[in-house]
Amino acid sequence: MASLSLRNVIKRYGHGPKANQVIHGVSAEIGDHEFIVIVGPSGCGKSTLLRMVAGLEDISAGDILIGDRVVNNLEPAERDIAMVFQNYALYPHMSVFDNMAYGLKIAKVPSAEIKVRVDKAARILELGHLLDRKPRQLSGGQRQRVAMGRAIVRQPKVFLFDEPLSNLDAKLRAQTRLEIQKLHRELGITSLFVTHDQVEAMTLAQRIIVMNGGVMDQFATPEEVYSRP
Ligand code: ADP
Ligand code: ADP
Question: Which keywords, in A-to-Z order, does the entry hold (predicted)?
Fold first, then answer.
């Protein structure tokens, strides 16, 4: 677990006179265990912000800290983060267990430890009875939970969600939203969740970052953000 700090973060795409600055000095102090939702119109920089925290995109200036560690120059794998994407891809030929274990095997985590972590994630996500199945034998909701299981077993300090619900039908979206809430209650992992859906923001966020044109317009509770005239 860890806090997350953005300190005057700037992002420019391109170089020289043609450079396009898309994030204009964003600062935010996010507490350990906090669930933060980032909202704002298309093109305002939500995804860029998330990808910079993940290390998938360099920052042009400023600092990003996870806990007390400056991560600006660390590879994604060194940042203790896990990302949940909207297009989760499970390995079709692997069992649920192996899908969740795969990244840990690559990272050479001992197999006894892998079993402990996968079993714990499976218990929280109610996948314990499905560990031997293949993805095609699962419902959409179960697959979504396996994808989250893969992120949990990494024991990240920070969870990054990039519109993970946007491709789901309404029923599955509501189900998965509840699942994410439950996960956060049980594990309390500091989370950054990008969406353009107000219901998701209202129900999931402890605080909301409102982005607009690469600037942080507001950083406040859902009540404060949505009671504005
Ligand atoms: P959002 O996620 O809020 O829709 P993005 O972070 O994707 O916004 O984009 C913010 C701005 O940065 C947009 O103007 C977009 O066109 C620009 N942008 C995003 N990715 C790139 C890139 N790889 N190269 C150049 N410009 C980009
Ligand atoms: P592969 O890319 O072959 O599927 P891995 O699943 O181990 O192998 O992922 C490769 C790299 O991506 C590793 O460095 C790992 O740390 C990182 N990675 C894997 N899954 C995630 C995730 N959910 N969030 C963040 N990083 C991840």
Answer: ATP-binding, Cell inner membrane, Cell membrane, Membrane, Nucleotide-binding, Sugar transport, Translocase, Transport
Q: Which amino acid is at 228?
A: R
Q: Strand, coil or helix: what is 29?
A: strand
Question: Could you give phi then psi for residue 209, rounded to 5 degrees?
Answer: -100, 120
Q: Which residues pair with 63 in a beta bridge?
A: 7
Q: How large is the average pLDDT for residues 46-65?
A: 97
Cα–Cα dist 49/30, whole Å:
14
CB contact at 8 A, 143 and 84: no
Supply the residue whose CA is at minimum distance from atom 1 of ligand 2: 103
For residues 135, 123, 126, 199, the Cα torsion angle rounded to the nearest 10 degrees is: -100
CA distances in angstroms from 161 to 64, 116, 128, 130, listed in the order given: 17, 25, 24, 24
Q: What token pair was written down for 92?
A: 């079709």
Tokens at residue 176, please?
A: 């998965």
Give the per-residue pLDDT at 165. 86
How many A from CA of 103 to the centre of ligand 2? Answer: 6
Which residue is closest in CA terms to ligand 2's atom 16?
Answer: 77
pLDDT in tens, 72-107: 999 998 999 998 877 678 999 999 999 999 999 999
Distance 33 CA to ligand 1 centre (A): 28
ipTM surpasses cut 0.85: no
Say if ligand 1 is within 6 A of residue 73 CB.
no
The rounded radius of gyration (Å) of the Cα atoms in the chain is 18
Task: Give the number of other CB atoms < 10 A from CB of residue 171.
Answer: 10
Structure tokens at 153: 């077993």
Task: Write the residue with the smallest CA distance to atom 11 of ligand 2.
Answer: 77
